[in-house]
Here is the input.
Amino acid sequence: MMRICFATNNQHKLEEVRQILGDRFELISLKEAGFEGEIPETHETLEENSREKAEYVFNQIGIPIFSDDSGLEVEALDGKPGVHTAHYSGSRDAVSNMTQVLQELGDSKNRKAQFRAVVTYIDKDRSEQFEGIVSGRLTHKIQGEGGFGYDPIFMPENHEKTFAELSDEVKNSISHRKRSVEKLANYLKSIF
Ligand code: IMP
Here is the structure.
């Protein structure tokens, strides 16, 4: 079975991606690959940060690897918070971050937003990127208890509930991460 490192230590993400990739690949975390320490994130786009993450780790551990970088992009805010999604309000606190975005958006009629994920795959012969997007709109207030991050203010299109009100199953079947990793899975299956 081919070993691939997913550049994360987030157990939840690992499980989710394991299910998408199937049992043809053995997915290991950063920790299991023996990587410790901080990964730099120095750029202003998801594409560059995702690539930087994958290259940085690949240069240290040398086994096939993929990273993901994701963010919320709000149309009326010119794509913000974008790469700054994780600590938009200055902290990682989810409620502060959601409050900051809702305040900036105010009563704007245009509430279109999307989550976007960029996955970068690297091995000694290849480097590829895959994008996944889920479109939707922002609510006026926080709704629901499930999920994480900005889930309670994001309603995916064709649904009248936020990601935090929908089941994990439904969310994970349409999410940006699912869509980007599915493309990666198809790519890996075509070359290995
Ligand atoms: P990262 O790429 O995992 O660092 O994600 C960046 C930030 O985007 C996270 O800290 C979350 O705030 C937000 N985010 C990414 N994916 C999701 C999601 O599926 N739901 C809600 N927020 C998300």
